[in-house]
Amino acid sequence: MRSLTHVRRSGIALLCGLALTTGLSSTASAASVTAPAAVAAAKGEFHWIGAKGRPYFVENPPGGQCLAMAEKGRAANNRTSARATVYAGKKCKGASKRLAPGQRAPKGFTFASVRFGN
Known about the structure:
This protein has 118 residues and is mainly β. The protein has helices spanning 2-12, 14-17, and strands at residues 18-19, 44-49, 55-59, 66-80, 84-87, 96-99, 110-116. The chain is globular and about 30 Å long.
């Protein structure tokens, strides 16, 4: 049970692991809108490992929005109901890998941003 609590706390630390990519207030949101809000949120959790080896996750991530990481992530694991695309660059640019629900990113692939439902 203690490790689950640690993972939940790491999820809260997500706010430190994501950076804003638009002019939204830094206290308003951990993600920015780069697509219409009509895309539904993905159900489930998206997990990854941060640059310092800390585990992170986001629960029910917003659909159609580009989430930019504050630091490079690795070991992406899409446990959501939607397709996730992880990008090597910020602002959902650069080399990308699409992850179907339940799929993990290839070993060694690092990413700087992610979008769900695309």
